[in-house]
Amino acid sequence: MKEVDKFIKNKKELLDYHKNNFKKYETVSAIIPSYNRCPYPVELYYMNPLIWMIYSLANQKYSSLKEVVIVNDGSTDYTDDNIKFMGNKFKNSHFSIIYIKNESNKNPCVSRNIGAVNASAQLIFFLDDDCILSDLALAGLLATRESLKKENRIGAIHIPVFLRTEGYSDIKPLNKIGKLNLLNGTAFTNFRSFPHEYLLSEKVEYLLDTPYIKPVNVDFFQEVFLIERSLFNESGGFIEDCGFEYIQHEGLFLTTKLNKKKLSHYQIVDPNIYTIHFRYGNVFTFPQTTDSCYQLKIDNKYISLKTMIEESSVSRVNTGNRTNLENIMIDSISGRYALFLYYNKDSARLWADHTYQALVNDNDPHDMLKVPKNTFSKEQLESIWEKSIEKGKEVYEKKIINENWFC
């Protein structure tokens, strides 16, 4: 977005900063759960999204990456061969590749917990297997943490995840970015939105002694984030059987588990720090980057962003956590409904009312749901809402959340 471009820093300025500061950064274990994200054999390794993610990490400048922990969640494609090939390629690198294979397909939460148990760095960085990072994303993330920890008890730092594009999708006020109100039944994600207030301010606040914009406080976070390994393990990690088939709500429920520690969670909003999510195998009509100059270096090859998007747009069924839009909407609504039920039945009722109005009547003054226009009839939307509420009740009955977490 042109309005945000003024905050993009000269790359040399960022490189000079990190060159003088990176030695004090804490070590990082990147954790990547993966399911069937290597459809091509080793001869075409550079066309596999999991390989894109590995090279995106390998190409990070001035980071303190110690290891990449890959948890193969029962893949049936060429993942085994490709990761063994990567292990040989990077055996003399500054980071190691730790490879773990589940005997059968579990789910992303189980795999992420397995990755955390096998990690050894001070910090763990959870990533998806069909993403790539901006060139200085990890260094920027670590610099942000280094500055924040001087004054705050830090929980998680969430990084923007852009869908097949390099920049922010829209602009939202701060009170609608990563906010969860357990009393009035409202929940706002908008983690791909730039804060409106930052555009109005004559002088945006930067982190002390860094070239990066100060991140915003959020009430919860999603699946791509950095957190202290000991803190994550003390919390017991992700809830492994959330009751949701597609959207696991890892970050939402983990935030609830961490509530008692009175931590500060953050959302990065500096446009120099981001990840691009390809949603590999998913055909959709959201705006996508088609004219980017971005290229990912893989050995002696360069793969353009356009090529990666085109490859990701080929419909594939048995890969990742692939599903249709209806199931995504059901899990999105029902996850927050279940959480509100644990906390307060009135809040749950308010959330149900908000989502009904937004989904069925296209009346969303709270700006909480993104519903593609003209995709479903009103009758279909009513059915989706009813299924969502029933699913939320089912999850609530599983008692996966300890009500003491809200204290």
**Largest β sheet strand count, sense and barrel closure:** 8 strands, mixed
What is CATH's topology name of the largest domain? Spore Coat Polysaccharide Biosynthesis Protein SpsA, Chain A
SSE string, helices as H and strands as E: HHEHEHEHEEHEEEEEEHEEHHEEEEHHHH
Low-confidence stretches: none
- What percentage of amino acids are in beta strands? 15-25%
Mass-distribution shape:
globular
Description:
This protein is of the alpha/beta class and 407 residues long. It folds into 2 domains: 2-277, Spore Coat Polysaccharide Biosynthesis Protein SpsA, Chain A (Alpha-Beta Complex); 325-406, no CATH class. The protein is 35% helix and 17% strand. It is built from 13 helices and 17 strands. The protein has helices spanning 2-5, 11-21, 49-58, 79-89, 108-117, 137-148, 196-200, 229-234, 250-258, 305-312, 325-343, 345-360, 378-397, and strands at residues 28-34, 65-72, 96-101, 123-126, 131-133, 154-158, 161-163, 170-172, 179-181, 186-188, 193-195, 216-218, 225-228, 264-267, 275-277, 295-298, 301-304. Strands 3-2-1-4-13-6-14-12 form an 8-stranded mixed β-sheet, sandwiched between helices. It has a 3-stranded mixed β-sheet with strand order 5-15-7. Strand 9 (179-181) and strand 10 (186-188) form a beta hairpin. Helix 11 packs antiparallel against helix 12, helix 11 (325-343) packs across helix 13 and helix 12 packs antiparallel against helix 13. The radius of gyration is 21 Å and the shape is globular. The two termini are 41 Å apart. The relative contact order is 0.14.
